[in-house]
Design goal:
With about 150 residues, the chain is an alpha+beta fold. The chain has helices at about 20, 70-75, 130-145; strands spanning about 10, 35-45, 50-55, 60-65, 90-95, 100-105, 110-115, 120, 125-130. The chain is globular.
Length: about 150
């Protein structure tokens, strides 16, 4: 998977402050990805692995390019560490040439990704059911931090 998925038209938001801008976004127009998964992709020895959002149909949906050695962090992750916010307080991360916004509303989790830390136009955006989002994170977390039976 080389280049990330791109929507036909970028999603534009009014202003850099995402919490204020989300009210004006037509969330019903955001495409649903039914085969969403969360995977690790090994980058190289120096940077380790990165977390990717992937679809068998659409390919690479979004990624966390600045999250080096995610495999180390995932050993200590629990469900409350999964990237997720609300419309009022979205999860946001950014780097020199990247920005991601993740938030839940009703039954869906929305993901917007752009190629600039101050982007107001997002060439990659999609939504996934909340259940699928957490199921996929749970699968990844179970590989690195498996639940174990307590001795009685």
């Amino acid at each position: 998977m080389n280049k990330p998925f791109r929507n036909p038209r970028p999603l534009r938001v009014a202003g850099e402050e995402m919490a204020d801008a989300l009210d004006a976004v037509d969330l019903n127009g955001i495409p649903v990805v039914d085969d969403f998964s969360v995977q690790l992709r090994e980058i190289d020895e120096e940077r380790g692995s990165h977390v990717d959002f992937v679809s068998a149909v659409h390919g690479l949906l979004a990624t966390f390019p600045a999250w080096d050695h995610a495999e180390r962090d995932l050993r200590h992750f629990n469900p409350t560490d999964v990237p997720l916010g609300t419309m009022e307080s979205p999860y946001e991360d950014a780097d020199d040439e990247w920005r991601i916004v993740i938030f839940a509303k009703h039954a869906y989790v929305y993901v917007f990704e752009a190629d600039s830390p101050r982007a107001q136009a997002f060439p990659r955006y999609f939504r996934v059911t909340r259940d699928r989002y957490f199921e996929q994170w749970a699968l990844l977390l179970s590989m690195f931090n498996p639940a174990s039976e307590l001795d009685a």
